[in-house]
Design the sequence.
């Protein structure tokens, strides 16, 4: 009975703490459709590129960064070089240096998390901490009483 309860608890905790698998597709051309010369669309792109540039400069050279591109790709690495129109990161998973233009970036985030052993994807550190806190609380609420009831001689 003890082994059955323990195995059910182990499976339940693994199901709760695992992350869903996210499949990312890469476009064959690597380009996004343009706005066809509309000035308002290009000013939005320029404003976003300026915001990304200031965010990258705020993070600084030698710091960890997560870069989300407009085409859906996500890169994790360390900022190696910051220039006027582009920046370079030493990508940690591919182990090579990538040059990324500011206009290709959707958003950035400081830091990157460790690799999830179940999915292979990198988890964001605050998200991983929340998952661990929920798993710990569930253990206290569900697991500990089950273990106590299973071990009583009554």
Sequence:
């Amino acid at each position: 009975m003890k082994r059955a309860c323990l195995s059910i608890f182990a499976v339940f905790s693994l199901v709760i703490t695992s992350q869903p698998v996210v499949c990312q597709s890469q476009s064959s051309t690597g380009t996004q459709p343009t706005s066809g010369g509309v000035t308002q669309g290009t000013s939005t792109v320029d404003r976003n590129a300026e915001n990304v540039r200031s965010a990258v400069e705020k993070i600084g050279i030698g710091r960890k960064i997560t870069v989300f591109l407009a085409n859906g790709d996500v890169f994790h690495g360390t900022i190696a070089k910051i220039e006027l129109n582009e920046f370079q990161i030493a990508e940690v998973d591919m182990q090579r240096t990538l040059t990324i233009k500011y206009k290709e970036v959707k958003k950035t985030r400081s830091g990157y998390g460790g690799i999830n052993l179940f999915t292979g994807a990198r988890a964001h550190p605050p998200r991983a901490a929340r998952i661990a806190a929920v798993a710990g609380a569930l253990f206290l609420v569900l697991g500990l009483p089950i273990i106590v009831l299973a071990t009583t001689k009554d």
About this structure: Confidence is low (pLDDT under 50) at residues 19-39. The first helix runs from residue 2 to 17.
